[in-house]
Amino acid sequence: MSYISNITPLILTYNEAPNIARSLTALDWAARIVVIDSFSTDETLDILRAHPRVEVFQRAFDTHGQQWNYGLAQVQTPWVLSLDADYVLSPALLAELAAWQPEAGIMGYYLPFKYCVFGKPLRGTILPPRQALFARAHARYVDDGHTQILVVDGQSGQFKHPIHHDDRKSLSRWLWAQDRYAQLELAKFAASDQRFSRFNDWVRKQIVLAPFVVFFYCLILKGGILDGWRGWYYAFQRMLAELLLALHLLEGKVKSEK
After folding, report:
1. Pseudo-torsion of CA 159, 83, 148, 106, nearest 10°?
2. Shared domain check, 102 and 222
3. Single residue among 150, 165, 180 that ends a domain in this structure
4. What is the rounded CA–CA span in Å between residue 165 and residue 130?
5. Digit-coded pLDDT (tens) for 235-253
6. From start to end of 120-225, where are the E strands?
7. Both 200 and 245 in a single domain?
8. pTM for this prediction
9. Residue 190 in this model has a pLDDT that exceeds 70
10. SS3 for 135?
11. Do 157 and 175 lie in a common domain?
12. Total Cβ atoms within 10 A of residue 117
């Protein structure tokens, strides 16, 4: 017997009209879908309310961790599948979920990702696997810079097939979000000590290294150049995100020298 009926998808939204319908299409198996909306002003709510299995809760956004934890409190099933509004479950992953049975002692499962540019998955990107399927009673979120970390009390397993990260929002919206994320990363740097246990944080703190390292990594080491213009688009996106952070770091450095 399939265990998939014991999973509730949990999604965060804010002005996700270009994405949310595609995400919901791959969730037709779910008896209930919980969405935490940060008071969207586009057509997101209309799309959500037209879906019979979606239950929408609205909450003013403060941090990602707090928003996710609020969402967990609304879930009633033993297992949660946490998704961003631009995540689409691949057909192969849907089949894997349908056959899934929890393993003894495993309280969370990592799912691989494929980044998409205008709907086409890229060969290789810098998205690491995410622990997106987990036992609700054994997990909580904590904030980490512009994003969040899921803390799971128990062992973790691994799924084979990917979620597609397929964001169709405008480039202007992407730039707005990246600048906001950069400022949250700055706050994380300011709150942490100077040892920077994570290598990528150390590289970013050098200011000039990260934009060029990430561009080379995405385009050459991860094979983005084989994806044609979509690979270049992704590499430039990631480089620009690091440039925005570098500019904020430089701004702080220049101001401190006055």
Report:
1. -30
2. no
3. 165
4. 12
5. 999 999 999 988 888 887 7
6. 120-121, 130-135, 139-144, 147-152, 155-158, 163-165
7. yes
8. 0.85
9. no
10. strand
11. no
12. 21
Could you tell me if 43 and 133 lie in one domain? yes
pLDDT, one tens digit per residue, over 81-129 is 999 999 999 999 999 999 999 999 999 999 999 999 999 999 888 888 9
Domain residue limits at 29: 4-165
Say whether both 112 and 203 belong to one domain.
Answer: no
Same domain, 80 and 200: no
Please state, in angstroms and rounded to a whole number, the distance separating the CA atoms of residues 12 and 33. Answer: 11
Does 100 share its domain with 198? no
Burial class (CB in 10 A: 0-12, 13-18, 19+), 196: middle
Domain count, the chain: 2
The domain boundary, picked from 165, 187, 203, lies at 165
Number of Cβ within 10 Å of residue 185's Cβ equals 21
Residue 196 predicted with pLDDT over 70:
no
Q: How far apart are alpha carbons 175 and 135 in whole angstroms?
A: 34
Q: Which two tokens stand for residue 102?
A: 């929890």
Q: Which residues pair with 131 in a beta bridge?
A: 110
Same domain? 84 vs 37: yes
- Among all chains, which residue has been given the structure tokens 């701004």? 251
The beta strand positions in 191-248, using DSSP E, are none
